[in-house]
Write a structure and sequence with these properties.
- This protein is an alpha/beta fold and 250 residues long.
- The chain has helices at residues 9-13, 24-28, 53-67, 89-110, 129-141, 159-175, 186-189, 209-219, 223-226, 235-244, and strands at residues 43-48, 71-78, 116-120, 147-152, 178-182, 202-204, 247-249.
- The strands form two sheets. It has a five-stranded parallel beta sheet with strand order 3-2-1-4-5, with helices on both faces.
């Protein structure tokens, strides 16, 4: 098992969304990491801290593998009810239901079956890390040989992302399943060559244009996050993720 990186939460907190984060062009001006060979991947379990992480981080890969006949399963750890911290109990319940529906719709666009939802508490996943590692381990032990696991990167800056990444790393170490870690918020707060990012383990996903377009279409399903007068995820977040492609740490 690889060493667990220290949290990058302070780095993320220091770059609020209102500031826009690292410009897209900064990422496009540097060479992309070498491509990952996916030929040995006979199945993929995608673990997402929140509904939309799987699409934002791995949506094009999910679509492309599924179209090629690879069995892809999405597991959403939380229902995303803490996306608006000031919501009442009733509003939070409605948001959780809406985000589950959005997740199911996005999965259909990407060409995969109904996601599995673990319904652990959004915003508090670190408190359930040991239990989560066990749950992920159970899922991985039921997978056919040759299956891989993709999960949020342990250093992504968001505490829930990092907790899910650590739990997935523990589960993969116990089961011998290949682990891929995908960043989402790293593209916002980090910069090319940033020493806290494990660039030596970075690999880019070999994506076709149609798959990226399918990812964009699936992302539109998450209207609770991208739409409204005060969106949780401003439009530039998706534009940046579509532009930089998909990268994993292996």
């Amino acid at each position: 098992m690889r060493g667990t990186p220290a949290t990058n939460g302070p780095r993320f907190a220091a770059r609020p969304l209102t500031g826009g984060g690292t410009p897209v062009q900064a990422w496009l001006d540097v060479p992309r990491p070498p491509e990952l060979d996916l030929t040995a991947c006979t199945g993929l379990i995608v673990i997402a801290a929140h509904p939309d992480d799987e699409t934002l981080g791995m949506g094009a890969t999910i679509a492309q593998l599924a179209a090629a006949g690879v069995n892809v399963e999405v597991v959403s750890v939380s229902d995303g009810g803490a996306a608006r911290p000031d919501a009442s109990v009733a509003e939070r319940a409605r948001l959780e239901g809406a985000r589950r529906d959005e997740l199911f719709n996005a999965a259909a666009v990407l060409g995969v079956g109904t996601p599995r939802t673990l319904r652990l508490p959004d915003g508090r996943l670190g408190e359930h890390e040991g239990r989560l590692a066990g749950l992920i381990g159970e899922i991985l032990r039921d997978c056919p040989p040759g299956s891989w696991c993709a999960a949020n990167w342990r250093g992504d800056g968001h505490p829930d992302h990092e907790a899910v990444g650590r739990a997935a790393a523990t589960a993969c170490a116990r089961t011998g399943v290949t682990l891929l870690e995908y960043p989402v918020w790293m593209w916002h707060w980090a910069s090319p060559g940033d020493p806290v990012v494990p660039w030596n383990r970075a690999l880019s996903m070999p994506l076709e244009r149609w798959a990226v377009e399918r990812k964009s279409e699936a992302a539109q399903c998450f209207s609770s996050q991208f739409e409204g007068r005060d969106p949780v995820l401003p439009a530039f977040v998706l534009r940046r993720l579509l532009a930089v492609g998909e990268v994993v740490f292996r």
